[in-house]
Amino acid sequence: MDLTNIYASLPADLVATFSMVLVALVALALVVWDAFRNNAPGIPWAGVVALGVAIVWELFALGDAPGTAWYGMVRTGGFAAFVNIVVLIGALLSIILSVPYLREIRHAHGEVYAIILFATVGMMLLGTANNLVAVFVGLETMSISLYILTGLVREDEGATESALKYFLLGAFSTGFFLYGIALLYGATGTMDLARMSEGLAAGENLVMFWAGVGLLLVGFLFKVSAAPFHMWTPDVYQGAPTTLTAYMSTATKAATFASLILVLYAALPPERWTMVLAVIAVLTMVVGNVLAIAQQNVKRMLAYSSIAHAGYVLVGLAAGTPAGYAGALFYLLVYSIMNIGAFGVMALLEWDGKEGQTQTLNSLAGIGPRKPLLGATMVVFMFALVGFPPLGGFWGKVAVFAPAVEAGLTWLVIVGVLASAVSAYYYLRVLYVFWMRSPEDEPEAAAVQDRVFAVPVTSAAVLIVCVVLLLYFGVRPGGILETTASFFAGPGASMALLP
Amino acid sequence: MLTDFVPLFLMMALALGLALSLLKLHQLLGPKRPNLIKTAAYESGMDPIGTARERYSVKFYLVAMIFIVFDVEVVFLYPWAVSFRDFLAADAGLGVMMVVSFFILVLGIGLLYDIKKGGLEFE
Fold first, then answer.
1. pTM value?
2. Count of domains observed in chain B
């Protein structure tokens, strides 16, 4: 074996994946910091600085041509930069929201922030992986960190139950995923995504190949909580600390969907799986939206709503066209912002970790006039989640639905639009209870009168930033839509993403 | 191509069949003269005391986890050490050394954290 100059590309690789390396190193430094200064108050802010630097770095990389680093393991360039930005923004906002929240529930451990950073590194690897092994390593780094974060409040039975449930089901789905990778490797003889379809053309193991694709899809769809693999989502999202739910419901989905897009786009022949994804999208949208109607707990309702949103993204993926993928990327960005905002408001309306699981919507009657900032920002987030025109959610839905119509999946889009009409009921009911009911109407609301958090400046700033971003995406989506579309365009159309 | 695996499957079936039939044969043919000492649970020659279903301190699991981490580290390091001469010959010794040093550093940080947090203290 020729080993000459195998480390010649090391400096270039370090620069190409600078943000991932930076976040990983800072996470390690935070572990050491926490070991010597238990729960030092500076730990989360060091993480925030690292994430901020990484975001700025990636913003400059948005226009780069696609390429690979680390011997073809990791993808670089515009697509990778965009995915990294979504993941990093999710982590950044969640950490800022978590600081006062975790202090209030008396679980402000320094390790939490290190684990969030480790999960972020996993997501960045997952979202930019160019090789099935890298996909798997990223997926597991992310998942194992999330299992720990879910069970953070270990005295609480609900949290422990959701962590165990997440771990067992997650480990099971990882088994499917790994078996799928093994079959795909057996059928094509390569782990490299870009060479996978060539390998398929050369070989004749079609049954093995499609069995592998199916198992791989099971693993992906579990992680993005698409129906029929969504069962864990409500329990886990309800049991986990609210600000960490905000993180795992947004950044996780963004990274996993990005990886799924890469696999679908680069590795698989497009015409076959459109109908599979369309059927799963219908199931996911219907299950998520219909079950969300019946929820009394807002966190659980938002969990079902996140299932429904996974369905909307799948509509874009089912279209199977570059425009559909670009729309899905844009949707993930908008969805991350609005979901973090909604969970952030709910975190500030709790008074301990347990209450987030048992709190009913009715107990929050009339909270709007008493906490005008939270009430007003919640209006924006709910309308954005419905997909109302002046806000980002509207363009997100347009960006995933329009390519599906062009691809001939009009029936799918009709189901999607009907499903989002259903979603208006439960999103707007939150606003109705917040603003138009008074605590006197609701016996449950009497108990919570004076036990809501004071709103810290940092959390208020995060909520306002989310609102501003949603308004910006709603009024001027053009630039971002063009950016996401440019990742899939260029000479040789479908090969533009490949290095 | 599946026919290539026929000898393998045959061998697996043979091994399984042999193991199961030996177990069954010994049960059928062996003499059985149980007494009190023979039927007692084996506890390294001592008289068995109490139940085996005791609750262990969670510290044991911490130690076990650290052991596994360093066990896996060794799994990585053996092939690395064996092929290090090839790396040296190819003039890649420094880069390889750096990468592996970083790997061990990361594990060392984990151990440092564990010690600092009192994971190895039994009171």
1. 0.88
2. 2
